[in-house]
Structures are given as structure tokens and as C-alpha cells.
Design a protein that fits this description.
It contains five helices and two strands. The chain is mainly α and 175 residues long. It has a two-stranded antiparallel sheet. A hairpin with a 4-residue loop joins β1 and β2. The longest helix has 34 residues. The radius of gyration is 19 Å and the shape is elongated. The relative contact order is 0.19. The N terminus is likely disordered.
Amino acid sequence: MTDKSISPKITKLLFGVVLLAFLALPVTGYLTYMHYAPEAAEFCTINDTLNCDKVNKSQWSYLDLGFMEFPVAIMGFVTYLIFFTVSLGLIAKWRFQRIHKVFRPGVVIMLLRWLSVVGMIFSLYLTYIEAFVLQAWCVFCIAQQILILGIMVLFFVIKYYTDDQKKDGVMCEFC
């Protein structure tokens, strides 16, 4: 295998990450809006079980920093913005080494993979809260949870391809 055989595969997978992150940005943006909106999200509040307001205005929908409440939806928005921007940068061959020499493309992908794992774990925690504490579900939260799962899976597929290249003794630009 040559370097050219893996680069298109990883680039396509990174386009998948860009697409999923792009879809997640308006979802988390709307969740942030709903967190602050005084009126109920009527089209998303169907009954006591499917109730976006109950979930998005609960005590678990924000981090209390002492001096301010920080909605977790904003954390999600920033995380997806990072996935979107940095993945586009990898596709466009931005030189992240200009920031620091350690930021080779493979390291950047590894950091994004770990960010997706942390995001997935946090989403699972919030899903637990929805299911067993609030006993209510938010459709937009579920959509976001599916998107972070997809992003995490894509980064693990990228890891599979790069590990396979390393095992074969072939180095690629993303390794």
C-alpha cells in the first residue's frame, strides 16, 4: 500500500465528520436557545415523556460555575465547532504544527478522537439522566447523541486505517 491508498479514505471519513458536526451545530444552537427561552418549545413538548423543556431547563442542563450557569448545550456547540473546523483544516492540509510542533495530523486526529470519546461519555451520562432521573426525553438531545456517536465511530474507523498502515510499515500523512 502506498500513502495515496489511505489518504482518500481518511479524507472521506473526515468529510463525514464535517457533515455530522455541521448538522449538530444548529441542533446544539437550538438547544442553547431553548435553554434561555422563557416559552415552552411546543413542537418538541409532546407529553410528559417527550418533553424538551423538562430536559433542557432541568438542573442537569447547565454547569453551575458559582458566578454563572453555563448551559451544556453551549459546550456541545463549541465541541462540534471544533470537530467541524479542525476536520476541515485536516482536509485542507492546514499546518497545525505552526501552533506547536507536536500537532502533526495524526496527533490532531488522535486528540479529536479522544474529544469524541469524552463527548460520547458525557452524552451517555445525560441520557442516563433523561431516562432514569427526569424520565423525559428531548428529541434534539437524542439527535445530538446520535451525531456524537457517529463522529466517534468515524474517528475509530480512521484509527483502524492508520493503525493498519503503521502495521504494514507504510506511513501516511495522517499517521
